[in-house]
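Good morning C.,

I know you're traveling, so I'll keep this short. The sequence:
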Amino acid sequence: MAAAAAKLRLRVALILLLLLGGFMAVRPQAADKYSRLKNEEEATPGKEFRVAKLSQVWDKAQRLQLSPVKLAELHSDLKIQDKDELNWKKLKADGFDEDGEKEARIRRNFNVILTKYKLDGRMKTMPSESNYLRDLGESENDVFDDPKLEKLWNKATTSGKFNDEEVRKLRREFLHHQDKIQEYHILRETVSRSEDIHQNAISSGEAHIKEDLLHTKHAELKDKHHNVQESFGRLRKLIHQGYDEDSEFSEPRVLELWDMAKQSNFSHDELDSIKEELKHFEVKIEKHHHYQEQLDLSHQKLKHVESIGDKEHLSRNKEKYKMLTEKTKELGYKVKKHMQDLLARLSRGGLNHNEL
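The tokens, ready to paste straight into the viewer:
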């Protein structure tokens, strides 16, 4: 009897061991999924970003002849992209984004970055001597990719209506509009590819999911096209009338956000709160522009000191240049993140007052 009981206990123990072994065999797969994510989140020594392809883009950009200001701007964009991609990977691991909408948006944002900095292989990057001051419009040989935009820019710079500071500000507005055009073209290409995929859908269930996603993309494309048209209309009006001294804001991104807020159903008190935050945001943008200018000047001075072999001032100039580079990157990221947050909060119905 005791021997039988001992045999039974042994069999139960073996069954439990087998079950536990099967459970442990399954769990590492799930654990691996999260450990891979964790490894991706931990920066590789010597790498600026946690997502490998973004580090590759950054390495490539550093090898090309981009100006220091453009490199700092790219760094800010890649940092935002890095965070968004890792957040998406966590969502995907948890079973969200089944229709692939967020993945498509993140891929599109990545393509926008490549196009914006001419890292997509389509166009040769700008030479290094194209410094920040010329980037802001002090060159008479500025060329925009869009013919209508280029024609309008020539009209603006030859009208005599704008002083030097206004021309620089106008240049930023034109660049901002050009970014919108690039985003629109990339979205249009994405929609076109999605239509081809939809036609080749295998199952009816798969076709239904892709049809919903395609409908969403078409709506987004229509909205983006409307946004581009509104932006161009505003530029034409600006060229015709000049800058309004009584305007609440002057920075194009802030003006867009303010127009967006006024067209929504916000109360008077809510609009006052939004206006107050946008004022703070505009100050942050102006501070970023200031550091961009200082970074470019520091770069020009460093090149001069290196060319004349002034060892006494070389170390000091290198330190200042490094400090300005890091500060410009930091402010660029903060501006882009703040812009991203403001857009999200305005689009979902308002600003949370305890976030102000």
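Safe travels,
E.
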